[in-house]
Structures are given as C-alpha cells and as structure tokens.
Amino acid sequence: MLRNLKLEKYRSFDEYELSDLSRVNLLVGKNDCGKTSLLEAIHFLALRGDPMVLAECAGRRGEGADVAPRSAAPSLAEAGARSRQVGPSIARFFFGHRFEPGATLRVSGDGHGCVSVGVRLPDEADDVDPSAFNLLIESSALGTNLAIPVTENGYMVNYRRQRYRGRWFDQPSPPPVQFVALDSLDGEALREAWDTALKEGRETEAIEALRLLHDDVESIVFLTSDASRTESGRAGVLLGLGGDGRRERVPLGSHGDGMHRLLALSLALVRAAGGILLIDEIDTALHWTVMDDMWRLVVETARKSSMQVFATTHSFDCIRGLSALVESRPDLAEEVSIHKIGRSIRKAVHLDAEDVRVAVEQDIEVR
Hints:
Number of domains: 2
Distance between the termini: 25 Å
Strand order of the largest sheet: 2-1-5-6-7-8
Oligomer: single chain
CATH topology of the largest domain: Rossmann fold
Number of strands: 17
CATH superfamily of the largest domain: P-loop containing nucleotide triphosphate hydrolases
C-alpha cells in the first residue's frame, strides 16, 4: 500500500506531502484546497505516469477539447494546425500554470517510485513533431521515459489514445485503479463494470449495496439492445423489486441519483480489487442516515479485496458516519484515517480513528 505521497510543483501545490496513509483514507478540507488534485496525482503515480491519466483528468475538468482554438498553437502554420488532432491541455498541471521549457512536476510515493513530467524544446532525434514542444514523462518504476508532442500552450498534439498506451504499457500491467467522479461510471463504463462483476461472481455485492437505500431490490438487469442504451441516461439499467407480494422492474433512474451513485461505487469496489480506488465526493447524493452503512461497505470490501481507498468529502455527516463505523467495529479502526488538506501548510494533518471519534464526540471542526 501507498504509505506516503509527495507532490512537487503539481497543480496548486508547490510542495506537499501526505503521510501515515492507511487502507481507507478520507481527505477533507475547504473548497478548492486541492483534494481532487491529490486523487488525480495518486492515479497518475499508480499507473506509473501513463499520459492518458493527464488527458482524462483534464477532460473531466473541461481543460481541453478535441479541437483547440487557433490561439492554442500560434507558432504553427495555419495549414498544419488545421490538419492536427489536438487533445486536452495539460498546462494547468504545472504549479502556477507555468508551462514553458524547463518547467517540471513530480509525484512520488513509497513502493510506487517517482514520476516526473518536464517541458522541453524539441530535439531532432526525437520521434515527435519537431515544430512542437515536448512533454517528457519519466517513470522510475518502469525505468523508461516517453516524449509527447504538445503545443506551446500545452495541448497534446496528434492525440491518439493507443499511440501512447502501446508504447508506455509494453511492460507488466499495473494494479487496477478506479476513479469514481461525479460523472463517472455512466453509460458503457457502468456496463463494463457490471460485466466484471458477473465474470467474478460478485453481482450480489452490488445488489446488497442498493439495499442500503431500498430494501426491496432483488436484482439488477442491463438491457442489451442499442435502442435501450441510447434512450436511457442510466445505460438501460432496470432494478428488480419485490416485497408486498409484487414483482416489478423499474428504471434505475426512477430512484434518483443516490441509487446510481451506490451502484457505481459498488461496481468500482469490484473492479479495484488488489489495486486503488479513488472516489471524489464519496457522500454525493447519499442521505446522512446511510453514511455508516456506506462506510462499512467500503472498508470491509477494501480489506477483503486487498485494495487501498482514497475519498474526499465536505460533509461532517460523512465524517460522523466513519466515526460511527469504527466505534461499532473497533476491528476496523486501524484501517481508516482522515487527512486534512490545506494550502497554507506543506503537510496534511493526519487523524487516526481515535482522533476522529474524539473530534465527532466533542463537535470539533476537522474539515
């Protein structure tokens, strides 16, 4: 497991450190203090500097588009610029948005080595576009590096997913990493996660998770026709309900965002077995009355499946639910911790289970 994490010149952090990490870690702090950035940094490190993680993170934040504005590549000839496929911008990953030759960021952690990303001028010997800047990614875990062409404004040039993955992952596969954001695991991603649960015989875990909100859930059904996938914003998912002598199947969306969030969470727990699960705003769409049961699901599954979990929240109810869990289940206390994030300090404040219990009991603000 990752026990310590260090960031240098990464997004809003000049230098920052997380230490004494446990199996399940809850990151708390004010808005825009960098909690999501820390999840993204862990994702990037765990996948050994895979450049597509940067692209996916930028895409979630709306920091790029398939076609960049002309101003994104002012030095390129007009005809050349039109012929390029330009991907997301990675300029904001650098501290102070300093994207220029010589700028470097680093993410490191025990057991995962170090990944550094630097901006440099092109070299004629590189197998990249000589008219663009180079983004040089170096991974100590892989003992290799990769140069990626980017525009002067930080947009990836000739953006092709397989182009980068094919070269970067000609190595033993990394452990599984799942990132659950507010808009993740929808559509086909949710369907793929369900397929994994079926293959591993763990679909009942998802059903039990949904019962935290609705006692009558008996089954989950994914429709297979293309029309069903297109028409439903919840990927054509039906819930089989029982109780009161009735049997019916209703769309997942008819039960609100809480059901969808729990389904996404439970399936991510299945897919992250043996790896790392990252959850942004873990309590979103969930009522405070299910917080302790939600945490029991997460912590018990993390222990059973040998995974490490990192989650964020703004909610004191979420913290209270975690405290209630470890008070009722002292055997799980050593598995959890809270880390308070703040830009005014260079190291997160660590709270173990007993610290959390005391803070909740005395109504001490820890967010």
